[in-house]
Specification:
Chain lengths: 576, 576
């Protein structure tokens, strides 16, 4: 029986209720955004008792559908001041789904200055005071919690950054090998920290598999769907072989790889940090170049990256992180970046926000461009330990910019702009500006059509067609984020008709319903509008749907392009 | 001949132009807000080249009118994101007015990483590169500049905080004794720092006095006006004797003295920091209890406060500073507060913003409540030197709150709430919420009518009548701020009819015009509306016209009152 579980941290009680009628059929982002919009006062303090932290597995999570294991978390964001959903792989979503928990809603704030864990099993939800784990990193937490239970329970945790309510703090979730995946751009880790929950553990022991209403139909649709993932060159070849870091050379070639705090679109040392170099390094050192971040993933773009001695260094080593510390901070040594990635996972900070912040910090003179050892030291000894400098660095790019009086600060809605320069990839620029989440490439990945010619081609340097592209992708993404599917299914979905039809067939077979393509589009539109309204009610305005001034004033080499959308043009995004 | 002087820091040129027709008759805040609204793009980066820093003397500045020597500065605020005007005494306004300069507009940003001074004399405006003065405090700047010119030129400067573009940085202006007055809440010092101007010096040598069109009428009106200042008990007795610090005991008695980061309305040690104690201390140590901050001031609420050895320690030692470090930070030693005041003047930070910030920092555990020596050390060695901790502390209360994840952060539009708790003095709460400047008691001093029974009496604990009170006071204040008059003329103006009529008579006699009382009200309304529209265009919304959540949730002893205005009630403020 599907249910909603509530954790009330103010009085340390838990409760279970049936899924209300209006939430039936929602999952992932559709569920978290609907609950946040309904239950969180938009103007509340994001770190106060009125905010709620909502976890939800996707509609298809827990089934045999490939790539369906994403966990969504939602809340009011302390970074953007608006609504936030972020999702990641790992094992937690699947276990929640198998337990029938469609949403886990964490409410309130403890009265005492104590820290807690929440353990979720088949027949009980238990809040327990924790103290010995305070200050521990995420790797240590996963290890100790799984040791405590004697089995690979799912672990959702915050590191020291979340405990300290830093605005770059994210939420970590253990993957099948007990390594760390991350959700929570927008400071969701600070929200979890404000509720004084160090970790949530989930034990699926004793629950049966999730069965579809129409098993035969589901199996057939699932087979077709999985084949489309294998057949598309991006999800079937590029990502499995090189991981997301395959994009370094592609974006550099396109002149859209933001370099040295967004002053150029090309990085001279791109070869040193490219996916090709990473792949060869991993193979040479006995790492794992192709690896699944959650059970049932077929694309397997994750990897295990070892150090020079062949010892585990990091995993889930993504393009955006490598771009950010590499090109944007001019750090040429991939091992330094990998070590930084490991520390960021361990202390629990968003690697995009943190890398963008370091780019601004380097321009501000806090440390030199290219200082990889300095970044590693500051992550470990300053941010991780919450020194004054660590507090300065831990609040993200926008905060760093305000603290040092910088004018070149690449953020939208106070969230750092990721790895694609909006001047040279204008479609993603529209997504950054208009997205409900702040600057977020995953909310409408126009890079696909601008650069990779997936789903057709729209000239990245021209304004023509970009708003429609970003709008359609954001609508589709809001729907995909609700299924529990990894966003990378979008590549085949944009090019191979059977991908989307088989996805809808799986949903229909699972629930015994009869969704059409239009229903999925309607869901995506509905989610976006709910999120947009929350933001407006929270006090955000059209002026928050803009890129920073410097993108319109400084031209980006090598194409020497500026950001040239007018406010009126951007505002047409919402005409749907 | 009246004129506008422009300083273009991008190409290091200056120019002079006649006052355009639409700006004739404007002065002070009316002038700065009109120019900022017309010439500064509301969405520009406040520390970027598109912002402009505007100085303007008031309409009556430079004349023989009592208390008319205020200097206004205006710009887009990097702290609030909206428009900002701030004014102070000192000698600069009078000299600008005598030179016929109705507005000094600083534009652009230098291309080179060099620092400059601007010298204004009868026949020339000169930009000069400065380097030896970089890093120097305001006291040192005034001393060295006046030594350079061999006479008491007016000096407008920024300290190290302004150089570092800290959001709490203000602008300093020398008083007749070469001590420091301050303008620039809202980070105007950071704006001046962004334009790389260390100081502006003004030499009035060779210019004749400002003469009225109708000298006899002016003289008679001026006499009547001056007499009303002497006749009113607040401006004629309370302020001259005890300074603004007379308010400590009054607000404590009223239960509206925010204590220990706004957790109580009474401070047990209020006697140790009261105006009465300060007065006795000053007299005992051979200081000056009654002192004018600008030439022609009759109220003379400033003072010179000596240390235990009878040596100069600080001046312009105001209630809000003493409240902030005293009651709000629980520092009982007035000498510690005086030393802190001196350092804040010297490094150039807003003492209200900084004191409110320390209250939040103490709640966050950065230093203990009551640690006066710690505050002095942090001002001098951290903020003043721009260490990482100094950067954390130098950005004001809102920034400190975000950095430490605090929920009890008393700011409106990111500007610290001054010395009157809005729960126990509800009229000033309306001013904090609705004011165009962020939380600013001087923009509509409802304390007068709520607590001092000036201009009638409105019960401070009741909502009744407060919105109308705050609206009328804000309109009147916007007009007064345009005359160059000290706001303290409002006390007689509210109670003695001849005060306002003689003020209008002086303006009419000075310019040979025929203003009525309604014209003055219309000017005030017009200024407020211009400012409000700028804020809306900059992206501020109704949600920025609100007090922080905790004022509505935590009741304030001893009256155990909460802030209970609804959003709809507050929004009626703008119905005029």
């Amino acid at each position: 029986m599907d249910k909603i579980v509530r954790i009330n941290m103010s009085d340390l009680t838990t409760s279970t209720e049936p899924v209300p009628a209006e939430w039936v059929g929602l999952g992932g982002r559709a569920m978290t955004s609907t609950i946040v919009a309904k239950e969180v006062p938009p103007t509340c303090h994001a770190l106060g008792a009125s905010n709620k932290l909502v976890f939800s597995p996707g509609l298809l999570t827990g089934t045999a559908a490939a790539n369906s294991g994403r966990l969504s978390a939602g809340a009011k964001s302390p970074l953007t001041g608006g609504i936030k959903e972020s999702n990641a792989g790992g094992t937690a979503a699947r276990m929640l789904a198998k337990l029938g928990i469609r949403a886990l809603i964490v409410e309130g704030i403890p009265k005492a200055d104590k820290w807690y864990s929440v353990h979720i099993a088949k027949d009980a939800v238990t809040i327990k005071e924790e103290s010995e784990l305070l200050g521990k990193g995420n790797y240590s937490i996963v290890n100790q919690v799984q040791t405590r239970y004697g089995k690979p329970v799912a672990v959702v945790s915050v590191g020291p950054a979340g405990e300290m309510k830093m605005l770059s703090a994210n939420i970590s979730v253990a993957d099948p090998e007990s390594h760390i995946r991350s959700l929570g751009r927008g400071g969701l880790g600070a929200v979890m920290g404000s509720k004084k929950i160090k970790f949530i553990s989930i034990d699926e022991t004793g629950v049966p598999p999730v069965m579809p209403k129409d098993a035969a139909k589901f199996k057939e649709a699932s087979r077709i769907f999985a084949k489309t993932l294998l057949d598309h060159p991006v999800s079937g070849q590029g990502l499995p072989t090189y991981g997301t870091d395959v994009l370094v050379n592609i974006l550099n070639e396109a002149g859209g790889l933001p370099t040295r705090n967004f002053t150029s679109g090309q990085y001279a040392a791109h070869d040193k940090i490219s996916g090709e170099t990473m792949h060869d390094t991993i193979v040479k050192r006995g790492g794992v170049p192709t690896h699944a971040c959650h059970p049932g993933c077929q694309i397997q773009c994750s990897q295990i990256y070892n150090d020079k001695d062949g010892k585990y260094l990091t995993s889930g080593f993504e393009y955006e992180t490598i771009w950010g510390l590499g090109a944007d901070c001019c750090i040429e040594d991939l091992d330094d970046i990998a070590e930084a990635d490991h520390i960021m996972d361990d202390i629990g900070v968003d690697s995009i926000e943190t890398a963008v912040m370091f780019g601004v910090a380097m321009e501000a003179g806090v440390l030199p461009f290219g200082d990889g050892k300095g970044v590693v030291r500051m992550l470990r000894d300053e941010i991780g330990k919450g020194t004054a400098l660590g507090r300065v660095l831990g609040g993200g790019a926008g905060q760093l910019g305000r603290i040092y009086g910088m004018t070149r600060v690449p953020v939208v809605k106070n969230q750092g702009i990721p790895a694609y320069d909006p001047r040279a990839v204008k479609g993603i620029g529209v997504t950054y500006a208009m997205g409900t989440m702040g600057a977020d490439h995953t909310s409408g990945y126009a890079v696909a059509t601008n650069i990779l010619s997936v789903g057709g081609h729209v000239d990245p340097l021209s304004k023509t067609g970009q708003i429609e592209l970003a709008r359609n992708l954001q609508i589709a993404t809001a729907a995909i984020d609700s299924t529990g599917m990894c966003l990378f299914i979008a590549f085949p979905a944009l090019d191979i008709p059977e991908c989307l039809s088989s996805l809808i067939d799986m949903i229909n077979a699972q629930f015994g319903i009869n969704l059409k393509g239009d229903d999925v589009t309607a869901l995506g539109k509905s989610v976006l509008k709910i999120e947009h309204q929350f933001n407006l009610d929270a006090g955000l305005t059209k002026e928050d749907d803009r890129l920073p001034e410097f993108f319109s004033k400084e031209s980006l080499p090598p194409h020497n392009v500026i950001w040239d959308f007018t406010p009126a043009e951007l505002d047409t995004f919402w005409n749907f």
